[in-house]
Amino acid sequence: MEHSRRKQTPYLYLYALITVAAVTLRTVASFTSLNEYGYYSSVLFPISGYLTLGGVLLLLCYALLHRRDEKKRADFSGPLTYIPGAPLALCLVLLGASLFVRKAAAPLGSLALKALALLAVFGAFYFLFTVLHETKLSDLRAAFGMALTLFLILYAGYLYFDKSLPINAQTKICDQVAYVFASLFFLAETRISLGRESFPLYTALGFSASLLCSYSAIPSLLVYAAEGRVISNSANESFVTLFLFAYILCRTVLSLLWQSESATPLMQALFEDARALREQVASHGPLPFEPQPTPAAEEDGDMTEKDEETVAETESTSEDEPSRAQEDNNEENSGN
């Protein structure tokens, strides 16, 4: 286990290095070269974008390089799950409320916004059930996890069609990609609740999604705190993205620390001794306190010993009946 963790440590260093560099470059570009339409005029933003893209591709390689790793014992307990999950749930509720009261040009658009708001609230309940159901398998937690996944991917679509910024605005694209990868991460986490997990893919998506969420949220919030200028769709969205980054990062680090479900050599030897002892006891028949096995009826016309005795008695009785009838006739004739 320690050897496996040593192999995973370089990914943490790589993740930290790329995240700090990419976020720093985009933050500087956001302060110095971002116009009101969401476009950057500085070369710093393309450099940070290519750095983020390369980092995501490298971190996704974790799923391929560790695909043969042992299955792990996942859980949803501990402060690394509760602490970032609670503010994220609150921010989702606030974002849902803001979407619910937001107006749209067409009635169908208003209906879609209200449906998206309800999904945000249902997604917030997912973090409540991570507290109430700490075990690995939970169908109820999985249902709300699917609602959260659906909200994140639909919100990325909402950002695409929103007209507050041009459709190809660079700030909008950063937010869209972050929400798409966040939805993929929560889809992988929902699979854990259903017992269909893939831990290498879960960890790889966690690294990538947290990198993209930090790249989207931290520069936006720094600009908002320093200048009061909102460069994303809304300030509520930026806070949701920030706490998505915190939650996904904590869960990804936890996935590296989870213990393996496979037995150690000592436990494997104990299991083998117990199995051998059980087979030895079973070979000498049932113990006095165990129920005695009842003989099952034979199939294909075969009968038990009791059935054979009954049939034999019946046959002997049927054979004796003609002889008794003959004797009765002889007695009647002699009497006449």
Written account of the structure:
- With 336 residues, this protein is mainly alpha-helical.
- The chain contains 10 helices and no strands.
- It has helices at 2-32, 44-65, 79-101, 107-132, 139-161, 170-193, 199-227, 235-257, 265-283, 305-335.
Task: Summarize the topology.
Blueprint: H1 2-32, H2 44-65, H3 79-101, H4 107-132, H5 139-161, H6 170-193, H7 199-227, H8 235-257, H9 265-283, H10 305-335
Helix pairs in contact: 1-2, 1-7, 2-7, 3-4, 3-8, 4-5, 5-6, 6-7, 7-8
Structure characteristics:
336 residues, mainly alpha, 10 helices, elongated
Biggest sheet overview: none
- Using the alpha-carbon principal axes, give the shape: elongated
H-E order = HHHHHHHHHH
- The count of helical stretches stands at 10
Quick structural summary:
The chain has 336 residues and is mainly alpha-helical. The protein contains 10 helices and no strands.
